[in-house]
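agent> Task received from the user: take the single chain below, predict its 3D structure, and emit structure tokens. No templates, no multimer pairing.
agent> Plan: (1) validate residues, (2) run structure prediction, (3) serialize to tokens, (4) report one or two observations.
agent> Step 1 OK, no nonstandard residues flagged.
tool_call: predict_structure(input=
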Amino acid sequence: MPRLAALIPLVFLLLPGISKAASEGDFLKGLQGAYSGQGTVRLRTNTGAIKVNCTFNATSSATSLALNGRCRGLVLVSRSVGADLMLSGSRYSGTYTGARSGPAALSGTRRGNALRLAIRWAKPLNGDRDASLVVERVGQRGLTLTITDRDPASGKTVVTSNIVLQRK
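)
tool_result: status=success, residues=168
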């Protein structure tokens, strides 16, 4: 009986981790679905924004998320974009595709309804290889994808991509 009494506090110490893992899985599964929407994309931090229309398909499990989509702007501009993420503990890592520099590494964590991910471009873009991606769940049907990067001339953070999607 004394051994059992000693184990009870250990169980309660472990429960927050179990609860956190379950909430991460619920968050990821809640993102699953087909989305469409629009937004803006800047090819460089110092160029004007291009309006785009996008469609995305999100598939997920308790420990992974795959976002695959296509954005179209102007008359002939069309680009496939995506992110494949894996959850390990409370950290996310994976790959972003769709950048001119090639596949980029992603890493970060979830805070509330948003995945906050560091991007490491395959080659320098906008003067360096670093940027940020936020994948945010908005309400029950919304999803916003925002990429920010530092403008090398001004040093200011610039939104280079902001896509607002709704589940179909």
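agent> Step 4: summary for the user.
The chain has one domain: 2-167.
agent> Done.
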